[in-house]
Amino acid sequence: MKEYLESVMFTFQGMRWNDIVDILFVAFVLYHLFLLLHETRAIQMLKGLAIILFFVVLSRLLDLHAMSWILTGLSAMWIIAFIIVFQPELRRVLVELGQNRIFGVLFKEHVQLY
Asked: Is the pTM value of this prediction over 0.85?
């Protein structure tokens, strides 16, 4: 237990301020992505993709070449299928992102009156 705590403390001693900002930014993005996809069909599909990726890693660890090849090809098709099947949800996410106040200020359109 003592060695574990020492390794954790050693890890945090090497962190810089931009590492903390990076972690917080990734957490913020993942949290809001989860909120947008919550209770949609996309969550079930992401669970399926996670299961396939788990078996890809497992088959590589166990040195199962044929299974690894099949699952790797399946995961590539799964990502393409995700984009095609959930195009409406992805579109909604992009629209909501564009309507967000934070990004709206960055990309605000200037209208000129004549």
From this structure: no
pLDDT value at 35 more than 60 = yes
Residues 3-18: tens digit of each pLDDT: 878 887 777 787 888 8
37 pLDDT above the threshold of 80: no
Distance CA 105, CA 1 (A): 49
* Tokens 């699952």 -> residue: 71
Alpha carbons 52 and 48: distance in angstroms, whole number = 6
Q: Which residues contact 52 (CB under 8 A, 6 or more apart)?
A: 71, 74, 75, 78
Supply 89's token pair. 């949800």
Question: DSSP character for 100?
Answer: S
Where helices occur in the chain by DSSP H, the ranges are 2-13, 17-37, 41-61, 65-85, 87-99, 101-106
